[in-house]
Amino acid sequence: MENKISNIDQQKLNEMLTVSAAPHVKTDKTTQKIMLDVIIALMPALVAAVYFFGLRALWLVIISVIAAVLAELAFQKVVKKPVTISDLSAVVTGILVAYNVPVSLPFPMVIVGSVFAIIVVKQLFGGIGYNFMNPALAARAFIMASWPQAMGSFPAPFSADMVASATPLQGGTMPTLTNAFLGNLGGSIGEVSALAILIGAAYLVFKGVINLRIPLAYLLTAAVLFVVTGTAIDQVTIQLLIGGIMLGAFFMATDYSSTPVSPLGEIVFGVGCGILTVLIRVFGPMPEGVSYSILLMNIATPFIEKLTKPKVFGVEVQKNERNH
Predict the structure, then answer these.
(1) Residues of the chain with pLDDT under 50
(2) d(CA 187, CA 166)
(3) What is the pLDDT of residue 61?
């Protein structure tokens, strides 16, 4: 009788408890909720893009998102994997692919970019959480390599005829601090308005989706190196506001899957992004280096994690005891 009562009690206890492998972290955050927060945070930049570049910017984003979602759905159906489009990660990838291209880019090119990001960079490596580099930035690099002329053509804001003009990083006139901050300049549709990006970033920090270690390490390193490499101090802030640094620092370099997880590793990652961005922008043949900087640091992430991995509690004690 006692054994029966004991077995019943144990059964009830097992039903009350969730038995799982470590780590035992209780949280109500799901991938879907995190991705939804990221989508909300990206909306100010979309509003700014439509304001400066017109409704074509909105269509570019919509088409990119549809391509990304359908690519993920089709791939998972073909390989008979569970369909995960409801987690919204493909939607985020589609938005970010569109944010990294000029508003004049032909729709078929952004479709190819989104499909490449989802299938080649994400799904072929195992899906969300297994991609070793940022899918949207990899797609940008792929589109740039395939259609460099289209990717280097940036219409000016409020240009109804989509006539391209030289951006500040392509040798055009440097904008005022106000225009650089608000986004009244040429560039990829999601990167021009630093104000919109900062509003979205503040939301992500508030919701606990990202922390500021990588962005601050990135921006501070870039600022110092701009001064060291000859940029006038009064132009450093503008250099940080133009191009893709702000979008990259807050929305690309903070990708969970392709960046270090330890605090020290995150700082090293951000510093590396800042160094590479300035070196490419100042000394390289390309006007912008954010995408390649983050992608290179994505590749270096396993080495960074190995070097910055915290010591396991008790391991050092055991080693010392064995030595004695």
Answers:
(1) 2, 4-5, 20-25
(2) 9
(3) 97
What secondary structure does DSSP assign to 12-66, as a single string?
A: HHHHHS---PSP-------HHHHHHHHHHHHHHHHHHHHHHH-HHHHHHHHHHHH
For residue 60, the tally of other CB atoms under 10 A from its CB is: 25
Nearest to 243 by CA among 284, 298, 303, 204: 284
For residues 85 and 73, give the distance between their C-alpha atoms in angstroms, rounded to a whole number: 7
pLDDT per residue over 27-62, tens digit each? 567 889 999 999 999 999 999 999 999 999 999 999
- Domains belonging to the chain, first-starting first, are 31-308 (1.10.3430)
107-115 and 89-99 helices cross at what angle (nearest 10)?
A: 140
Distance CA 315, CA 318 (A): 5
Whether a cis peptide bond, with omega within 30° of 0, leads into 302 is no
Q: DSSP letter at 155?
A: B
- Could you tell me the two tokens for 133? 């580099």
pLDDT for res 26: 53
In whole angstroms, what is the distance from residue 150 CA to residue 116 CA?
17
**Using CA atoms, how far apart are residues 239 and 89, in angstroms rounded to an integer?**
31
Q: Which residue has the tokens 């690099």?
A: 141
Report the pLDDT value the prediction gives residue 5, as an integer from 0 to 100.
Answer: 46
pLDDT of residue 12: 55
pLDDT at 27: 57
Q: Which of 243, 180, 246 is nearest to 214 (CA)?
A: 246
pLDDT confidence of residue 24: 47
Total residue length of the chain: 324
Phi, psi (deg, nearest 5) at residue 304: -65, -45
Write down the pLDDT at residue 315.
54
CA–CA separation, 238 and 174 (whole Å): 8
SS3 content of the chain, % helix, strand, coil (to 5): 65, 0, 35
Helices H / strands E in the chain, number of each? 15, 0
What's the confidence (pLDDT) of residue 10? 55
